[in-house]
Amino acid sequence: MNATHRSRIAKIREKLADLELDALMVSIQENRYYLSGYTGEDAQFDESAGVLLVSASQLVLATDSRFDLQARAEAPDFEVVCYRKGLEKELPAIAANLDIRRLGFESVRLSHKNHAAYAKALQTVSPPVELVPTENLVEDLRKTKSEEEIQATVDALRLAEKAFSRVVATIRPGMTEKQVAWDMEKAMRELGAQGLSFPVIVASGPNSALPHAIPSDRRIVEGEPLLIDWGARLNEYCSDTTRTLVVGKPKDPFQNVFDTVVEARDRAIAAIRAGASGTEVDKIARDFIDKNGFGDKFGHGLGHGTGLAVHEAPRLSPIKDDLLEAGMIVTVEPGIYLPNWGGVRMENQVVVIQDGVRVLNDPAPFNPCIGN
Amino acid sequence: MNATHRSRIAKIREKLADLELDALMVSIQENRYYLSGYTGEDAQFDESAGVLLVSASQLVLATDSRFDLQARAEAPDFEVVCYRKGLEKELPAIAANLDIRRLGFESVRLSHKNHAAYAKALQTVSPPVELVPTENLVEDLRKTKSEEEIQATVDALRLAEKAFSRVVATIRPGMTEKQVAWDMEKAMRELGAQGLSFPVIVASGPNSALPHAIPSDRRIVEGEPLLIDWGARLNEYCSDTTRTLVVGKPKDPFQNVFDTVVEARDRAIAAIRAGASGTEVDKIARDFIDKNGFGDKFGHGLGHGTGLAVHEAPRLSPIKDDLLEAGMIVTVEPGIYLPNWGGVRMENQVVVIQDGVRVLNDPAPFNPCIGN
């Protein structure tokens, strides 16, 4: 078995022993990949490319005929079981074969409907199988990244930055937000991205005051903020960066807002180290923004983990406190949003190391003013 | 209120009365849009752009600050409630305000974890609120389409067909499956698609024997089957079509397989009418393929509904029997898959009418041989 998967499965098996579970059913797509290498994707929320069943001594990947060959090729350490009439019908036999009494499941992914159907089906096994909700068993492992995972993230980020440089050189007043978003997507895909981490955000002028803006037909105007938030997926890992630009000469209060955001970000980054609290790091950026008179204009959390998913643990947030550990990759993305004027957000990705932080973005100085 | 939404909500309210529910919590993205016009998207399986609460007299859209302005703009008939610390914290107050005792929820979407959290939170209301699982309350309405929905689907299909014509004219031996898939995606997007219905499938030679093939770096070879399955999303509605081509002169047994699949499809289409059984329509294609000696080479169902989701009810399937009704849009997509050689699938989209069927695809004759 691949050493990476062996080590991850060993850790899951320790947790199973601690929780007195005979096996874990893994239905979250990223968790399946993390433990097996299987890349089958759930096409819709109500569709599934299969589940892993990890017991103390056995590894099963149950899926349907569409994914059978792919599962065998990608997950050679798992016994692939192909179900014809849905998992519900086959689960009792699989559980009996694996001699399972207590079966953990991922409560954040399993629907109420499937839980009820599986629980009922498992009552038919003798002795009956108990379904036990679990949370974060695999996600907790995914929080800290190996060197290979950090490198995969850096590769995705370099690709995304290259796409940005290419597109920025072509941005002119009069282009629409949608055009720029599509140019960014094309550039990433043509540079070899397997996909986007999330739909590209391009927001100009007042639209940039919405942290979650959707690219529109609004045309770019000189002197206004132009916010671009984008990420590439490469080798399954996600990048996530934001830059705010101005075409031509920035109008007030852009420079003041921009400088405040960048300094808030860099102060927060300087405070990150193994053992730091996510809430304290968030507070450093938030307090600086507050001190500069924009206290109520930064309405979201400071950052989040990235990896196989673009949003994962840990959070840098005023609400939920996560302890930072070496190997965690997080975004640091303060913003100031002034309704009817616009907003500035500047986001880097960093990896926590023992006594500090390593910024993953290109270290070249960033000048927000373009086209002058 | 928009007449379309008014009529849909009236039908949901009738169902609530039948089920003795005081309200329905709608968390499926397509269902939210169908009843309200709100297009907020759930970015990951564990993220939500909000829920609708439909009671006999009130309409609430609960979401977080990222979607607040969008929700107000798109769903003017709903009272938008913005939660700060997650729905779990706010749901008791919302339920109390709406005077709810029995609250229906969508059991196929709500996770076991959120169900447990909401159920616990709702116990704090006086009198306590009971959560009641429901299935298909909105989906059953979505199965039959209005003229506007049919037109939206036709518009998406015309766009997808135009993209296909453009790309087919450029296909040459030596191009990779991935290149063709990306060209298809670019063509759809540049013609104005809001997105894809699903990732484009391009499968050549032996790869086309996998009904669920993922585009690879395999290069197109003259004489082999080249299967393309693609769809565009436009105005929220999905198209879905498959064509199988050959570059140059087809090698045996292509023509025989192709003719069998096309006739199986067209015989099935000829049997569709309001009142027909999905399983019987499936059987007509399946029997014809069987009679021609390929009985075990057609391993999937004949078709599925399309609409706001690319896979929705009804099914044309040997396993699950759905009654066809006027206004339903379904795909008809038999295939014959010969391991190590390749496969042929030909898929049209049709709308069921009272005494027959209307094929939505371009009626021009299709010649699978290109580049001669």
Automatic annotation (TrEMBL), chains A, B:
<dbReference type="Pfam" id="PF00557">
    <property type="entry name" value="Peptidase_M24"/>
</dbReference>
<feature type="domain" description="Peptidase M24">
    <location>
        <begin position="155"/>
        <end position="352"/>
    </location>
</feature>
<keyword id="KW-0378">Hydrolase</keyword>
<dbReference type="InterPro" id="IPR050659">
    <property type="entry name" value="Peptidase_M24B"/>
</dbReference>
<dbReference type="InterPro" id="IPR029149">
    <property type="entry name" value="Creatin/AminoP/Spt16_N"/>
</dbReference>
<dbReference type="InterPro" id="IPR036005">
    <property type="entry name" value="Creatinase/aminopeptidase-like"/>
</dbReference>
<dbReference type="InterPro" id="IPR000587">
    <property type="entry name" value="Creatinase_N"/>
</dbReference>
<keyword id="KW-0645">Protease</keyword>
<keyword id="KW-0031">Aminopeptidase</keyword>
<dbReference type="GO" id="GO:0004177">
    <property type="term" value="F:aminopeptidase activity"/>
</dbReference>
<dbReference type="InterPro" id="IPR000994">
    <property type="entry name" value="Pept_M24"/>
</dbReference>
<dbReference type="Pfam" id="PF01321">
    <property type="entry name" value="Creatinase_N"/>
</dbReference>
<feature type="domain" description="Creatinase N-terminal">
    <location>
        <begin position="8"/>
        <end position="142"/>
    </location>
</feature>
<protein>
    <submittedName>
        <fullName>Aminopeptidase</fullName>
    </submittedName>
</protein>
